[in-house]
Amino acid sequence: MWVENMNYDNRNVANEVTMVKNTKNQSIPEKFKKIIGNVLQTSYPKRQGATSEVQFFHAEQGNYVCKCSSLPKYRSWLLKEAKVMQELNAKTALSIPTYLDFEEDENNSYLLMSMEPGIPLREALIVAKTVEEKKNLIHSFGTKLRTVHETDPPLKWKQQACWLDMQLKRAAYNLNNYEVDGNQQLLEKLILNKPETIPQTLIHGDCTIDNVLVTDNQVHTFIDLSETAFGDPRYDIALAIRSFLFDKELLDAFYTGYRLQQITNEEFNYFDGGLYEFF
Ligand SMILES: Nc1ncnc2c1ncn2[C@@H]1O[C@H](COP(=O)(O)OP(=O)(O)OP(=O)(O)O)[C@@H](O)[C@H]1O
Ligand SMILES: [Mg+2]
């Protein structure tokens, strides 16, 4: 089982987005420029994601995020994210960015959305000075994840086939078509050892500490929504706890906030060390 090493205390992070001089200044669609208006400043997240390049535009009328992907696999994920955001903006009260536009050209896909305040939980945990502060952050993560799992998803999402079966099919496709960490042997093991089904809920689908934003010492906003679906909530729990799995105090804080259920080590390994290896 692979567990992420947080190294909370060894990194020096500022509590703000920074100008990164060597990030290439990705051009954006003309239509986005019209929506954004007069740009006062452009900046970048401290940590770019693996699948896209993100730019922040601070404009006269507000702050915007342009997320751009170039590889075919990631372009299809960005389109999915755009669709998910539109649906969730329209049908739920979840704290997520507001979808503004999606454009494609020959080489890239672009998603324009509102820039939400806050810093990723990973950074907030590094900045937090005391165990109590960290526990408070993780407790709020659990509480916020509960709101996702208790939110009624759009009706047509509920009518889709079993999420885990679909994910296993996608895992096989990814294994045959893309570079993934998982291998054939692991996939066969996952197919043979499917955990007993439990009721599906709305899930974030990539619920790591990089994909939630913290304001006022509380997890407030979910970002990076391309995998959001009606699915197995144990997948979200596994990805949420992967970076503090062996820290009992933080794990307890998470579950005290989350309250709905706990996952077993076996389930953790199935979802985090297993299924996640194919995405
Ligand atoms: N709407 C937003 N408001 C504020 N910050 C954002 C927003 N969207 C993205 N960010 C910032 O940009 C970073 C990368 O965004 P995101 O996680 O969506 O990209 P990604 O390439 O899909 O990442 P991953 O590696 O998880 O696939 C985030 O960690 C966050 O700092
Ligand atoms: Mg991300």
Provide tags for this entry:
alpha+beta; binds adenosine-5'-triphosphate; 279 residues; Aminoglycoside 3'-phosphotransferase, Chain: A, domain 2; five-stranded antiparallel β-sheet; Phosphorylase Kinase, domain 1; three-stranded antiparallel β-sheet; 10 strands; binds magnesium ion; disordered N terminus
Put the structure in a nutshell.
The chain is α+β, with helices and mostly antiparallel strands. It has helices at 30-36, 72-91, 121-127, 131-149, 155-158, 163-177, 184-192, 233-241, 248-258, 265-274; strands spanning 39-43, 53-59, 62-69, 99-104, 109-114, 119-120, 201-203, 212-215, 218-222, 229-231.
CATH architecture classification name of the largest domain: Alpha-Beta Complex
- Poorly predicted tracts of residues: 1-16, 18-23
Please compute the radius of gyration using only Cα atoms. Answer: 19 Å
Widest β-sheet, arrangement of strands = 1-2-3-5-4
Query: CATH homologous superfamily of the largest domain?
Result: Aminoglycoside phosphotransferase (APH), C-terminal lobe
**Count of distinct strands:** 10
Tally the structural domains.
2
Helical content band: 25-40%
Quote the average pLDDT.
91
The number of helical elements comes to 10
Query: Which structural class should the secondary elements be placed in?
Result: alpha+beta
For the largest beta-sheet, the strand count, sense and barrel status come to:
5 strands, antiparallel
Task: Output the CATH class name of the largest domain.
Answer: Alpha Beta
Bound molecules: adenosine-5'-triphosphate, magnesium ion
Distance between the termini: 16 Å
